[in-house]
Amino acid sequence: MTFSFRDKQLIPIWRKLQHGERLSLEDGLVLFKTNDIIALGKMANFVQQQKSGYAVYFVLNQKIEHTNVCVLSCKFCDFAKKKGEPDAYEMTTENILAHITPEIREVHITGGMPPDWKWERYLDIVRKIHEKFPEADVKAYTAVEIDFFHKKFKLSIEEVLKQLQSAGLRTMPGGGAEIFTERVRKLLFPQKIGAKGYLEVHKTAHKLGIPTNCTMLYGHIETLEERLIHMIKLREAQDETGGFLSFIPLAFQPGDTGISVGDGSASGGKSHRQFTSAIDDLKTIAVSRLMLDNISHIKAYWVMLTEEVASVALNFGADDIDGTVGQERIAHDAGAVSPMKLAKDQIIKIIKDAGKIPVERDAFYNPLNVYSENVIGKIPYLNSVPFYHNREKSAAGGFKILPVAPRRMGMLSKQGQLDAGLFSLMDYFEQEESLELLPWCIATRDQVKSVMLFSKEGWAGLNGKKIGITDETATSVQLLSVLLENKYRVQVIPERLHPGVNDYSMFDAVLLIGDEALKHNKIGLNGFELVFDLAKEWYDWQKLPFVFAVWACRKALSGERREELKEMISTSLEKSEVNLGIIGYSHGKKIGLTKNETKEYLEGFNYRLGEQERKAMMQFRKLLEQKEIKI
Ligand code: V47
């Protein structure tokens, strides 16, 4: 991709990005200070498209702010009230339930910290919502609230989270991070936890299988360096746990807080109160997309940005716009001019107007519905790159590409929402009646390196043991189950792994696939001495290749569109095959592979469906049909 730079200082940064290299604090400052806003936006959009294609996510959510009574007095907050003040309120669990409707898929709970609530009341809110609305994921309580519970109820942070998890908590919101420097903390929120406390709570949650979001409150007294220090601290934490789902830059709403914007102190008078500028908002979204290379999603929170700025932000690196929200007070009490809620149709319109694909999601970013025509699914792993190389960058072919985990691709196809895709073999088997097989696949003859069982025991020793299995695809799970039952004759206790969380210590073995497996195949997985490559296990046993995924399109797709699709796949593959090391380079680099390792890995696949591959598919199907135990 080429475009012209008016600010030549951006060119070395662009080179780094194209090579998948991480940006430094100094790079971040250049980005923040540039006047070349268009180039900045294009770079961020480029990186976003590598991660999410044309998708922009939203969720049908309801915000619940259960009380505004708070023992803290943070300078930037207009929401908090003291008990007994005229505008103070406290909701009962029944009040809360009355705000939730059956179509809601995420309930986002955060509020003040009142002096007299009992622990049971917080648990009760989560439990009752979960019981009454099991389809809605409960995203509850910020790190600051968790820390408050820990101190007030004398429970460890882990215990607080475990009890909430048993009550039905699925994820945690990112609020309360503010700015991670002690200077800002002392001036604006001296009673609140700082970076260390915030990160400790989030890392503990990740360890327990609770993914979380993270935020940054900007546009008050912080400096640009402080914004970057904040982002880098989050990036380091994400390197450790992988549990952050999204990053949300929160634009400061000045309200009656008495803080003036951007003067580096907390002493501004009311006469200087200002909202952040749209330019600053867009720069902050773009810089966060570029700095936070290991966080999948950047959210343009329309409540604080306004609909107009959020819409432009979708071409400045953001791939999420939050959701319908329902009713919001933290920002509105501080003067936000956005509406209190948005209708689903309005959100879809904003996303479409930005030229993107509206994808309705759950709290874990699993796609539930796609609101666009001509969409093709893309497995987001390195081994699929040869089929799509250069395709994300132009929707010109008429097809829009949606990166999605294999299992979810199968679900969307079942709902009739995809025209075509590289389907996990099990999904193709299941939908054979409505899908037409195309002559391309992802198959291996021997080892695969990216469908791996990391184990504490040899195969025989796994009998009766707990195995963590990936949530992302059914094919590898079924391959494992065939190997266990028919080749090794052992029975295990399978348990689904939580998405985005990588603490596997409670398992005797874990099955990983895709980039995660490839990365750990190279560097090892702590605590798991033995590593089995499932394709090799299959090959040694059956002397056949293994077909992990096949290209297929809807049978109902018109002849013309089908030809366009075939043309797209075959030209992309032909161009890629002569240059596998180069086309996979930046993707490979992100998972720690050298150019040669990437080349060798990609060369290990057969991308065309030949006689042997078809035979292997039939053999696998036969074994599945004979199987007694279903995982
Ligand atoms: O924790 C407080 C911030 C947060 C102001 O995780 C203010 O998906 C701007 O965290 N101006 C709550 N911000 C909101 C929040 C959030 C929002 C949307 C999505 C998610 C998510 C999280 O709002 C607070 C605080 O950091 N805040 N006062 C203000 N005057």
List keywords for this structure.
TIM Barrel, 631 residues, 26 helices, binds ligand V47, alpha/beta, five-stranded mixed beta sheet
Characterization of the model:
- The chain contains 26 helices and 22 strands.
- The protein is an alpha/beta fold and 631 residues long.
- It has a domain at 10-368: TIM Barrel (Alpha-Beta Barrel).
- The strands form five sheets. A six-stranded mixed β-sheet has the order 13-12-14-21-15-22. Strands 18-17-19-16-20 form a five-stranded mixed β-sheet. A four-stranded mixed β-sheet has the order 9-1-10-11.
- Helix 3 crosses helix 11.
- Mean pLDDT is 92; it is low at 263-271.
- Bound molecules: ligand V47.
- The site of ligand V47 has 25 residues, from strand 6, strand 7 and helix 14.
Look at the structure and name the CATH superfamily of the domain at 10-368: Aldolase class I
- Shape summary: globular
Q: What's the total number of strands?
A: 22
N-C termini distance:
44 Å
The distinct bound ligands, ions and cofactors come out as: ligand V47
What order do the strands of the largest sheet run in, or round the barrel if closed? 13-12-14-21-15-22
Map the helices and strands:
Layout (H helix, E strand, L loop, with lengths): L9 H9 L6 H9 L3 H16 L2 E5 L1 E4 L28 H6 L7 E4 L9 H14 L4 E4 L2 H10 L4 H11 L1 E3 L10 H7 L6 H13 L4 E7 L5 H18 L2 E8 L26 H14 L5 E2 L3 H4 L1 H7 L6 E4 L6 H4 L10 H10 L3 E5 L5 E4 L4 E4 L6 H4 L11 E4 L2 H9 L5 E5 H6 L4 E10 L6 E5 L10 E4 L5 H13 L5 E4 L12 E5 H10 L6 E4 H9 L3 E9 L4 H19 L2 H4 L1 H6 L4 H9 L1 E4 L2 H16 L5
Parallel strand pairs: 1-9, 1-10, 2-3, 3-4, 4-5, 6-7, 7-8, 12-13, 12-14, 17-18, 17-19
Antiparallel strand pairs: 10-11, 14-21, 15-21, 15-22, 16-19, 16-20
The structure holds ligand V47.
The site of ligand V47 has 25 residues, from β6, β7 and α14.
